[in-house]
Structures are given as structure tokens and as C-alpha cells.
Amino acid sequence: VPEFGAIVFLVFFVSIVGVLVINKTVFSKIHFR
């Protein structure tokens, strides 16, 4: 089902972006602390 693949890809992409953003913010807080 193409729709299912698109949903899985979207969730996968959003989760990766979220992890990168969280790591960047956490690293910035630790760096500036």
C-alpha cells in the first residue's frame, strides 16, 4: 500500500529531525552552561 509507505517514511523522517533538534538544543545548553 503506497499510503502506508508514505506514512512510515513521514514518521521516520519526523522522528529523525526531532532527535537532531533535541540533541542540538541539549548540546547548546550544556555548551553554554
Q: Can you describe this structure?
A:
- The protein contains one helix and no strands.
- The protein is mostly helical and 33 residues long.
- The protein has one domain.
- The longest helix is centred in the middle third of the chain and has 31 residues, at 2-32.
- The termini are far apart.
Keywords:
single chain, 33 residues, mainly alpha, 1 helix, rod-shaped
Structural class call reads: mainly alpha
The separation of the N and C termini measures 48 Å
So how many helices? 1
The main sheet comes to: none
Quaternary form: single chain
Q: Quickly count the domains.
A: 1
Topology:
Layout: H1 2-32
How would you summarize this macromolecular structure in one to three sentences?
The protein has 33 residues and is an all-alpha fold.
